[in-house]
Amino acid sequence: MSAFYGELARWWPLISPLEDYAGEAAELARVLREAAPHATTLLELGCGGGHVAAYLKRDFTLTLTDLSEPMLEVSRRLNPECEHLAGDMRTLELRREFDGVFVHDAIDYMLSATDLSAAIATAYRHCRPGGVALFVPDVVKETFAPSTEAGGADAPDGSGVRYLEWCYDPDPNDTVANTHYLFATREADGRVQHHAEVHEHGLFPREIWLQLLAAAGFRVSVLTERTDEEREPRLLFLARKAG
Q1: For the chain, which residues make up each domain, given as ranges?
Q2: To the nearest 10°, the Cα dihedral for 68, 179, 56, 40?
Q3: Which pTM does this prediction carry?
Q4: Does domain 142-202 sit in CATH 1.10.645.10?
Q5: How many Cβ atoms sit within 10 Å of the Cβ of residue 30?
Q6: Which of 7, 32, 187, 233 is the most buried (most CB within 10 A)?
């Protein structure tokens, strides 16, 4: 497991502050509610630190899953009323069905079509007949552009974190992009540490998404996200399981 989701997990609220998710979560809740107006239960695959869930729990009873136990612990502190379970979205088997399944940008860690297909199959198994699954990759192949981002925040106790994120595609002929991360963390006593690591992310054409979702048994609609943020709107893959 990467340091980002292991030893650095406790810094997540400062790396990616909760308030930054309010607008995005409202849009995702709108899409889910319009697609499934009577839905009450929602399974999230790859919940991370639970920042989207903190808003979605106002509308749904959530079951939150993630591969990283340290990230789940961050989410448990934020969302104690939600069920939390450790598991890989490619192989998770809860033997339960939900009104909806939600997969945010954790889906980007599926590096091959085989991995992506496995995650989609997990969503299908856990979606009740007539239910919906919403997949929200950061980008698809057609919308990818190299990017650089910096951020971070400070806590009241004097601790803080800063990061630099550099994302690019070293080989346009494959389905993988790279993101380089540099972190500087400052403890409350002033001690500063530095961390660097590289993450690989899946980068699939829209058509591959549609093929894999249809092969799993879903009926698919492609929506364009409504956002006021200073970035390109994302494509949302809204998949429905036949009732």
Answers
A1: 9-140+204-241, 142-202
A2: -70
A3: 0.96
A4: no
A5: 12
A6: 32
Chain centroid, CA 113 distance in Å: 18
Q: Is the pLDDT of residue 230 over 90?
A: no
Same CATH topology for 9-140+204-241 and 142-202?
A: no
Q: Region of 110 please: left (phi>0), alpha (psi -120 to 50) or beta.
A: beta
Paired strand residues for 199? 179
Q: What is the DSSP letter of 58?
A: T
Cα angle 183, 150, 181; round to 5: 40
Q: What's the rounded Cα separation, in Å, for the pair 67 and 49? A: 11
- Short-list 209, 210, 238, CA closest to 225: 238
3-state secondary structure of 219: strand
The amino acid present at 174, given as its one-letter code, is: D
Both tokens of 196, joined, read: 């660097």
The pair phi, psi for residue 148, each rounded to 5°, is -135, 135
pLDDT in tens, 68-121: 999 999 999 999 999 999 999 999 999 999 999 999 999 999 999 999 999 999
8 Å CB contact between 127 and 44 = no
The CATH number corresponding to 9-140+204-241 among 3.30.230.10, 3.40.50.300, 1.20.1440.20, 3.40.50.150 equals 3.40.50.150
Greatest Cα pair distance, the chain, in angstroms, is 57
CA-CA-CA-CA dihedral for 118, 235, 179, 106, to nearest 10:
-40
6 φ/ψ angles, rounded to the nearest 5 degrees: -115, -95
Classify the C-alpha dihedral 201-206-208-214 as positive or negative. Answer: positive
